[in-house]
Specification:
It catalyses: alpha-D-glucose = beta-D-glucose. Keywords: Carbohydrate metabolism, Isomerase. Its EC number is 5.1.3.3. The protein is mainly beta and 349 residues long. The chain has one domain: Distorted Sandwich (Beta-galactosidase, Chain A, domain 5), CATH 2.70.98. Helices cover 5% and strands 44% of the residues. It has helices at residues 60-65, 233-238, 242-246; strands at 2-11, 14-22, 28-32, 38-44, 50-52, 73-74, 80-81, 85-88, 91-94, 103-104, 117-122, 127-135, 146-154, 159-168, 172-173, 177-178, 181-182, 196-199, 201-207, 213-219, 231-232, 252-257, 265-268, 274-280, 284-288, 298-299, 302-303, 310-315, 330-331, 336-347. The strands form 8 sheets. The protein has a 9-stranded antiparallel beta sheet. A hairpin with a 2-residue loop joins strand 1 (2-11) and strand 2. The chain is globular. The mean pLDDT is 96.
């Protein structure tokens, strides 16, 4: 086990550092204290070749200018908040409008765009880095001074665990996730259309034309949203289902999980032999298939293009503050917010 630290860049005169966690078997995760961004995640393929399976930049400036939330912690609230406002304890809060008429992923300067403090962790069975940040009362329009911790740990089983913790001195909203873009082919050599996804989910949330949940739960049965027995991502890209078309010919949908800590999310790339198994205590996962991933920028030596990678964002239901039948994302004064998701990588021989 090894932990290394090096300077990644500089922001407003403050150094930004990268922290690399590496196991003896070659499993390696690198993150930076800007946005808790995971910049590299190296795992072997079926032939033992180590390659990066996430999208990333190698310059801080590119994250600031181009990044569609590559690898970052998202908050205070992941996803969209309808009309960029909400009411809590009799008071209305107005948030930055940064996605059409709505508020997206914590605003213009969400948790993905701030500098976190880092503490290195080294135990007998794992190594890690713990990031901490105080989000002040009123930041991006949200109430409460919120103390946050995000912990990344890895072990010899090729498992990355992300743990979140938060407390507030007054009632607020909190719904965190990680926005890593996965491509199991390795170094982005192919798109993700032939990746096979299996989800323990029999419902997904219907979206309106602004990609806000309508509040309706739709059954997956007999649709391109049924991943219970596994299906390729391409099937959803080619689907004529109105919800696939609405999302830009793909997925940008919350799937309601029917099981937790039970191999509920499985992503496989048959050609490389790599697979990713995710387990979480969250009630849903947002599948985003990179439908809008395009632009005049390079992702290291790759050109940005649709379907180059996908996100699996474990969280509570988006826009929950406007739907009383969704799990609550209200964090009351002195309560402790906790969330855990693990990512275990393996290969088929």
């Amino acid at each position: 086990m090894d932990i290394s630290k090096k300077k990644f860049g500089e922001l407003d005169g403050k150094p930004i550092y990268s922290y690399t966690l590496k196991m003896a078997n070659g499993f390696e995760v690198t993150s930076i204290n800007y946005g808790c961004i995971i910049t590299d995640l190296k795992v072997p393929d079926a032939k033992g070749q180590l390659e990066n399976v996430v999208l990333e930049f190698d310059r801080l400036e590119d994250y600031q200018e181009y990044s569609p939330y590559f690898g970052a912690v998202i908050g205070r609230v992941a996803g969209r908040i309808n009309k960029a406002s909400f009411s809590l304890e009799g008071k209305t809060y107005n948030l930055p409008v940064n996605d059409g008429n709505n508020h997206l992923h914590g605003g213009n300067t969400g948790l993905d765009r701030v500098v976190w403090e880092a503490t290195l962790l080294e135990e007998k069975d794992f190594i890690g880095v713990e990031y901490s940040y105080l989000s002040p009362d009123g930041e991006e329009g949200y109430p409460g001074n919120v103390r946050l911790k995000v912990r990344y740990t890895i072990d010899n089983q090729c498992k990355l665990t992300i743990s979140y913790e938060g407390t507030s001195d007054q009632a607020t909203l909190l719904n965190l996730t990680n926005h890593t873009y996965f491509n199991l082919s390795g170094n982005g050599k192919r798109d993700i259309l032939q990746h096979v996804l299996t989800l323990k989910s029999d419902q997904f949330l219907e979206l309106n034309d602004e990609l806000i949940p309508t509040g309706e739960f739709l059954p997956v049965q007999n649709t391109a949203f049924d991943f219970q027995q596994g299906r390729t991502i391409e099937e959803g890209i080619l689907s004529t289902h109105p919800q696939n078309i609405l999302a830009g010919h793909g997925y940008d949908h919350p799937f309601i999980l029917t099981s937790n800590y039970n191999r509920e999310i499985l992503l496989e790339d048959p050609e490389s032999g790599r697979s990713l198994t995710m387990e979480t205590d969250e009630p849903c996962v947002v599948l985003y298939t990179g439908n809008q991933l395009a632009g005049d920028f390079k992702i290291r030596d790759l050109t940005a293009k649709k379907y180059l990678a996908l996100c699996l964002e474990t969280q509570k239901h988006p826009d929950a503050i406007h739907h009383s039948h969704f799990p609550s994302i209200v964090l009351n004064k002195n309560e402790v917010y906790r969330s855990h998701t693990s990512y275990t990588f393996s290969v088929s021989k």
